[in-house]
User: What shape does this take?
Amino acid sequence: MINTVTGPVSSEDLGFTLMHEHVMVSASGMYRSYPDLLGPNREERAVARLKEAKAAGIDTFVDATTFDLGRDPELLRTVSQRSGVQIVNVTGWWLDVPRFIRNVSPNQMAREFVRDITEGFRGTDIKAGVLKCAADFAGVTPELEIMNRAVARAHLETGVPVMVHSYPTGQVARRQIAIFKEEGVDLERVKIDHSNDTTDTEYLKWILDQGCFLGLDRYPGYLVSPHMRTVTMKSLIDDGYADRLCPAHDCICLHILNERADGTMPEEHALAVRNPDGYLYMHRHVIPELKAMGVGDDVIETLFVRNPQRFFAAA
Assistant: This one.
């Protein structure tokens, strides 16, 4: 059974799943302390976007919003209940490690992450269903190594799978995977995300050959064109890796709105303007392009239904 924000579900009931999205990204406590920075009608806007996604056939998505990205579990539960989209939320850590906890031990943080999974996020009964850790262009810094090892240890205790924010241009996953190996993690329970920020299929196939899933979850993105992202995915499919690819958007519905120089406020944040299709970009652009390239319906189902099931099934 997989923890969603509305309760446990079977992996067989996930349906069409996007494996890396966000309802909201801000900062820890922002939604409760300074909600107006996220614009008016926040809950209604999120519900409308997810209802649109549900109507298009999206059954589930993994919300990759950690504590330091502003996770609000009760918002996610409300939006899930009202939209019908199942949401699996993460515990773990992204990149913003405050100075006050930079010297905690991996075991300390692992215990906190385990509680998020087994008991629920503090003050709620909403439980995490995925673990997340991260490193970016600076590599696996000492404080991020603590979080990576903590996530690995929480995974070993709970069996919950791991998604990894990585930086493919710098091949940062090589170090992240080395840490997981040192910690004894089964790499078939690991997904290396943002991997379509590169077209370096040699590096991507190395990750896949370690046993990991690959998150091709930045659409439309900006470091690589949407077309070349899909070309890269098709190349990996042709090379026999379809059963471990997880396409998604890394889309954000609610974000801080920045006042214009003339004092007016935009209706949407810059990322939404760049991707007006939101969670439907995959349906409207990527899947049709894959089909035009000769990818059949059975492979599409593998990417969006079977692979998420496989990633979670051993949890």
